[in-house]
């Protein structure tokens, strides 16, 4: 226990104080943990390599294809079209709710950083057009992005946790959707009502030019392509639960419902519907896909590093001991325990992805031994990994700088919103757990 405590503190110091790249920090800590826990010298590097290979082997296809699809949705104008359609449908009176819906729809295929940079100019255009308070209008939409980032596949952390815990991607998405909706409503529009008096003059630098109407894809095309991964996952999950089962149909359904196949189909369809059909050539599309891979390269490395740390804990046997001792000494439900560990690491390190993946390595034995529903543990850790975003989180500074706020007002708005999402998420997980 002391060895692991030392390693976690070392990880925190390397990332937050020494500003070491999280992937390098994970490598250093994984090797140190292996040596401290008595793994033979000759086997430590093998464990690190196996851990990286095992987790990336299952995830790299999903995450890379998801990043490509998200980039396509952004550069094609589909995200702009979705937002404009929702604003028109809701009307000026309910424009805040329109942006929330847009953030949720767009946030499913887009990775958080891409979604933030993409949606903020849209928020500012609405703020300037209708003369509305920027934080009051913008925070609910960003709450949608944050919730999808923490709760819903194909985002990196929940996708990785699904793999680690042998959970079901469709079931996790369904439970995550049930929790996401109330989390967004409470931490978004309802909480934002208390922030109307925060003064914010968004920097003109961040106001991006919108594509002209004649360059945008159609409404159906935009919604359908952006949500195609979700549609495919839902359809295959429904077919798998049909009362009349045909062996051949089940095999085909399992193939087409496999997340890498789902993402590949969605990207192929999107390449035509939002790319070729809209007049883009393959050269420009390939360039966008290359940029997308650059955007998530560090995320992949961080996930790989967390896999190395998890493998070292598993091989040493200490992971089982830690999970048992924490459960016995703290007397907490495993879902609460997973949330708490993720929350502590999130507050210490700042990164939601690192917090979720590190916590997963510690509580994995509780899940794999059948002590808790794996789909709900994914969501519990995901919720804990969002709590109290502050000065060591890049999202905190993005929000502060884009909205041109003081540190105090950023804490009052952004940090509180993230914390509300975390606690509401935990409550939703416990409620679902009580009925299944």
What would you say about this model in short?
Belongs to the GntP permease family. The chain has 436 residues and is mostly helical. The protein has 19 helices and no strands.
Properties at a glance:
mainly alpha
Strand content: under 5%
Low-pLDDT stretches are none
What characteristic shape results from the CA principal axes?
globular
Residues in helix, %: over 70%
| N- and C-termini, Cα separation | 33 Å
Calculate the mean pLDDT score and round it: 82
Secondary structure category: mainly alpha
Number of domains: 1
Order of helices and strands: HHHHHHHHHHHHHHHHHHH
Radius of gyration: 21 Å
Describe what this molecule looks like in 3D.
With 436 residues, the protein is an all-alpha fold. It has one domain. The chain is 78% helix and 0% strand. The protein is built from 19 helices and no strands. Helix 15 runs parallel beside helix 17. The chain starts with a helix and ends with a helix. It holds the Pfam family GntP_permease. One of its GO terms (molecular function) is gluconate transmembrane transporter activity.
Topology:
Layout: H1 2-17, H2 22-36, H3 41-75, H4 78-90, H5 95-107, H6 112-130, H7 134-151, H8 156-164, H9 169-192, H10 219-240, H11 247-256, H12 259-275, H13 282-316, H14 318-330, H15 334-349, H16 352-368, H17 374-384, H18 394-403, H19 407-435
Helix pairs in contact: 1-2, 2-3, 2-13, 3-8, 3-12, 3-13, 4-5, 4-10, 5-6, 5-7, 6-7, 7-9, 7-19, 8-16, 8-17, 9-10, 9-17, 9-19, 10-11, 10-12, 13-16, 14-16, 15-16, 15-17, 16-17, 17-19
């Amino acid at each position: 226990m002391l060895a692991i405590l030392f390693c976690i503190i070392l990880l925190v110091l390397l990332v937050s104080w020494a500003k070491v790249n999280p992937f390098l920090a994970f490598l250093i800590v994984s090797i140190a943990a292996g040596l401290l826990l008595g793994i033979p010298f000759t086997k430590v590097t093998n464990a690190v390599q196996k851990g990286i290979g095992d987790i990336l082997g299952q995830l790299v296809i999903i995450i890379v294809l998801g990043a490509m699809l998200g980039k396509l949705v952004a550069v094609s104008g589909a995200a702009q079209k979705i937002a404009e359609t929702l604003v028109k449908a809701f009307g000026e009176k309910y424009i805040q709710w329109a942006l929330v819906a847009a953030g949720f729809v767009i946030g499913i295929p887009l990775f958080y950083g891409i979604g933030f940079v993409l949606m903020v100019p849209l928020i500012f255009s609405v703020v300037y057009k209708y003369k509305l308070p920027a934080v009051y209008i913008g925070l609910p939409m960003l709450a949608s992005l944050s919730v999808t980032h923490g709760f819903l596949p194909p985002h990196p952390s929940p996708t990785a946790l699904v793999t680690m815990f042998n959970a079901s991607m469709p079931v996790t998405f369904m439970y995550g959707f049930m929790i996401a909706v109330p989390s967004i409503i409470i931490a978004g529009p309802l909480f934002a009502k208390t922030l109307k008096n925060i003064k914010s003059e968004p920097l003109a630098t961040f106001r991006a030019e919108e594509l002209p109407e004649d360059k945008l894809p159609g409404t159906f095309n935009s919604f359908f392509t952006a949500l195609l991964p979700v549609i495919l996952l839902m359809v295959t999950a429904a077919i798998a639960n049909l009362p009349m089962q045909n062996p051949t149909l089940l095999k085909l359904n399992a193939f087409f419902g496999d997340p890498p196949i789902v993402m590949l189909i969605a990207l192929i369809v999107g390449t035509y519907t939002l790319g070729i059909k809209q007049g883009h050539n393959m050269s420009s599309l390939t360039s966008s896909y290359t940029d997308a891979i650059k955007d998530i390269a560090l995320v992949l490395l961080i996930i790989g590093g967390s896999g190395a740390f998890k493998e070292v804990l598993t091989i040493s046997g200490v992971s089982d001991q830690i999970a048992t001792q924490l459960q016995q000494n703290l007397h907490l439900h495993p879902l609460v325990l997973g949330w708490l560990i993720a929350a502590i690491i999130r507050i210490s390190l700042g990164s939601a992805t690192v917090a979720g993946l590190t916590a997963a390595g510690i509580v994995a034995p509780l899940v794999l031994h059948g002590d808790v529903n794996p789909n709900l543990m994914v969501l519990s850790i995901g919720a804990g990994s969002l709590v109290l975003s502050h000065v060591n989180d890049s999202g905190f500074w993005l929000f502060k700088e884009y909205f041109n706020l003081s540190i105090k007002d950023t804490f009052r708005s952004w940090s509180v919103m993230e914390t509300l999402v975390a606690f509401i998420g935990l409550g939703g997980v416990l409620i679902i757990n009580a009925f299944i």
